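Structure in, sequence out. Go:
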């Protein structure tokens, strides 16, 4: 019997395990489906290598449908550290308006002035740590590539941005900033500073923290409406029940709703169709799926020597506001160092990304088998407001191929095919057919006011209608912030981890 069981050791779960186990009088069990590498010297290269994502070696093998009728891979980390151990190490926070809007949706504890201390607490910003809106002593080291470390295509990207009239942005995590500049990134040289590295490595010495890897949670156990523990399958195929005073679900925006539904919490009709015993009818579980739709301009370069698939995949970013939009920084353009496969044509891409999404998708069970992957249906660009702004972003992205140093690097555009038209109608069709995920799923176990029938948890992560059950990860976000989501997930871990540590009476 443990005081707390945490399901999932990713960007939020590892942080919560670290923070709660600071109390030596509480026993914490962290359960992870993937492997554990306690010693950094024995950690596989794909997890160390922050120059590119780990796509397959430590992946769940999930697929998703970004647009109707098209299924593609959806990489998610299956390892201690979760997706923070396999991602691109972009360390963006989102804008203050994101969190203030969360507050307006029934979650006042998440307003910007209240989450800023958690953002500061998690980071060791090596460039701007002295600023009041940054931290200099946290477990996650963050730095930006100086100009002399930028690859030629990223230097060219910033030159073209300047020629196109975008202002320079030295720190994209300055709350009031916009423009083009270096990405803040949680990497040191080639080392990816995941939550496994930053949070769990120093916490492992605590005798009250147990990390159990290669252990898959199949369902949460209930006595009536009270969570009492979890059922797991071990690496040898054996099944076991683990009891706890409190269950914290931090399996991510795709796996957390899946685990809830297999546990009998979800849309009643859907559960009944799979003969899953209903513990509670929660229509919001699996709904409200939110992400960042994106589409890229792919270019062949004049000088193949600048394309090296071993170089950092990303270093720079442009954040700006769509014409006529009231959502600041709702668009991004990012230079991607290389595209295609090693040995193929010498390509790079420039990504157009929609950062504030109006449309919503859903996640559904495929079967009653907890080992079957869920159906992930994003429905990108079905909302015309999203299509319109992503088309505008694509047109702005194409301008980078026509001006400044980036133009001089480009031999030809291979996608979209200029011969097929780049007018609004043609680009709209491309966005509705080919837009894809920024790998930032959120919102599938939405937090909000209990009066909202689609809200599953309150602003503290506590399940509205179940006791001793907390959800804490990207799934509780009301909508995706205007940034890559890793840092926000770590912030969620800091917020709820500290509440669990300092106010345990509120979670009983």
């Amino acid at each position: 019997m443990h005081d707390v069981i945490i399901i999932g050791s990713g960007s939020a779960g590892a942080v919560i395990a670290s923070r709660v186990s600071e109390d030596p009088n509480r026993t914490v069990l962290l359960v992870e489906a993937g492997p554990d590498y306690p010693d950094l010297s024995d950690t596989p290269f794909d997890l160390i290598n922050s120059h590119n994502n780990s796509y397959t070696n430590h992946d769940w093998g999930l697929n998703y449908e970004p647009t109707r009728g098209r299924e593609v891979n959806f990489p998610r980390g299956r390892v201690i550290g979760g997706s923070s151990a396999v991602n691109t190490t972009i360390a963006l926070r989102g804008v203050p308006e994101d969190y203030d809007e969360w507050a307006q949706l029934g979650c006042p504890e998440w307003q910007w002035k209240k989450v800023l201390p958690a953002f500061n607490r998690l980071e060791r910003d090596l460039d701007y740590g002295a600023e009041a809106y940054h931290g200099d002593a946290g477990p996650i080291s963050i730095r930006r590539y100086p100009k002399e470390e930028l690859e030629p295509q990223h230097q060219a990207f910033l030159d073209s941005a300047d020629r196109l009239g975008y202002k320079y942005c030295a720190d994209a995590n300055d709350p009031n900033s916009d423009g083009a500049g270096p990405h803040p990134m949680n990497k040191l040289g080639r080392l990816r500073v995941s939550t496994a590295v930053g949070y769990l490595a120093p916490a492992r010495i605590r005798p009250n923290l147990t990390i159990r890897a290669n252990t898959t949670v199949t369902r949460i156990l209930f006595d009536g409406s009270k969570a009492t523990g979890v059922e797991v399958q071990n690496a040898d195929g054996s099944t076991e029940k683990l009891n706890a005073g409190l269950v914290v679900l931090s399996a991510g925006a795709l796996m957390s709703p899946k685990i809830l539904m297999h546990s009998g919490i979800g849309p009643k009709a859907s559960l009944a169709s799979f003969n899953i015993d209903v513990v509670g009818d929660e229509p919001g579980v699996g709904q409200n799926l939110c992400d960042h739709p994106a589409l890229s301009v792919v270019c062949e370069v004049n000088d193949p020597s600048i394309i090296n698939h071993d170089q950092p995949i990303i270093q720079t970013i442009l954040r700006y506001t769509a014409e006529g939009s009231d959502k600041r920084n709702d668009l991004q353009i990012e230079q991607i160092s290389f595209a295609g496969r090693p040995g193929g044509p010498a390509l790079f891409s420039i990504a157009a990304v929609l950062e504030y999404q109006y449309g919503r998708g859903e996640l559904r069970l495929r079967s009653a088998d907890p080992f079957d992957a869920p159906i992930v249906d994003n429905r990108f660009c079905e909302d015309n407001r999203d299509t319109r702004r992503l088309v505008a972003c694509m047109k702005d992205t194409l301008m980078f191929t026509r001006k400044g140093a980036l133009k001089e690097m480009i031999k030809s555009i291979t996608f979209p095919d200029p011969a097929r038209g780049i007018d609004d109608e043609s680009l709209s069709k491309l966005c509705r057919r080919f837009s894809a995920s920024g790998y930032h799923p959120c919102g599938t176990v939405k937090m909000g006011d209990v009066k909202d029938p689609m809200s599953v948890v309150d602003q503290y992560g506590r399940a509205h209608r179940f006791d001793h059950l907390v959800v804490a990860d990207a799934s509780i976000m009301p909508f995706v912030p205007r940034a890559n989501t890793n840092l926000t997930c770590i912030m969620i871990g800091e917020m709820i981890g500290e509440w669990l540590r300092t106010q345990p009476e509120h979670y009983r």
